[in-house]
Amino acid sequence: MGLVKKSFTLHGHRTSIALEREFWEALQLMASARTCALSALITQIDGTRQEAPLASSLRIAALSHFRQSEKR
Q1: CB 61 within 8 A of CB 43
Q2: DSSP H or E run through 1
Q3: Rounded (10°) CA dihedral 69, 48, 58, 55
Q4: CA geometry: angle at 17 spanning 14 and 19, to 5°?
Q5: Sign of the dihedral through C-alpha 19, 23, 24, 27
Q6: Is this structure's pTM higher than 0.85?
Q7: What is the dihedral angle through the alpha carbons of 30, 35, 40, 43, rounded to the nearest 10 degrees?
Q8: How many angstroms separate the first and last alpha carbons of the chain?
Q9: Per residue in 6-60, pLDDT tens?
Q10: What is the rounded CA–CA span in Å between residue 33 and residue 9?
Q11: Residues 6+ apart with CB under 8 A from 21
């Protein structure tokens, strides 16, 4: 289980994020459920995080999303 690196532009700056393939898949499902692009979802999550690293915030957002969907 290796990391997959993807590049995005956040707030006018290029950044690379390395996550496990499974997290990228989960984030893509989240974006689809919200009818937005993956880059828009990442920008949204980036805007709500505080001190946590972006990669950690993305993992937590994916986990929270699927935990909430299990409760429905």
Answers
A1: no
A2: none
A3: -170
A4: 165
A5: negative
A6: yes
A7: -50
A8: 30
A9: 999 988 999 999 999 999 999 999 999 999 999 999 999 999 998 999 999 999 9
A10: 22
A11: 1, 2, 4
Q: Specify the length of the chain in residues.
A: 72
Q: Which two tokens stand for residue 33?
A: 């459920």
Contact between 23 and 4 (Cβ < 8 Å): no
Tokens at residue 37, please? Answer: 């692009």
Amino acid at 47: G
Token pair for residue 23?
């997290």
Widest Cα–Cα separation across the chain: 37
Is-contact 17 5, C-beta < 8 A?
A: yes
